[in-house]
Design goal:
Elements (H helix, E strand, L loop, with lengths): L1 H51 L14 H36 L1
Length: about 100
């Protein structure tokens, strides 16, 4: 009798574990589907934005014909600003060196 009860408890435990595993897999699959749908929606919106291009009304955009050109223009402007910044700092660094030579 004890042995039969023990088998019954083990069987119930195994069934409960299998049920919990199945529920977890179903939830995971549902989350992945939702994520995938959101990813597709975001990609479609990005494609629409890229195909629309710049209208010229945006002051940051200027006369760009598409968003990629706007990004390239912004990157070039940032590179130019970065190149100008060290050139302005160089004379300031030379001034302390000259005062040390006077001592």
């Amino acid at each position: 009798m004890k042995k039969e009860v023990g088998y019954g408890v083990a069987l119930m435990g195994a069934l409960a574990g299998a049920g919990a595993l199945a529920a977890a897999l179903i939830r995971k699959k549902k989350r992945e589907e939702i994520y995938h749908e959101a990813e597709l929606k975001a990609m479609n919106e990005l494609d629409e934005m890229m195909s629309e291009g710049c209208t010229g009304d945006d002051p940051d955009c200027g006369a760009c014909s598409c968003a990629q050109e706007c990004a390239e223009a912004a990157a070039e402007a940032a590179a130019e600003a970065a190149a100008e910044a060290p050139a302005e700092e160089a004379p300031a660094e030379e001034a302390p060196a000259a005062s040390e030579e006077e001592k």
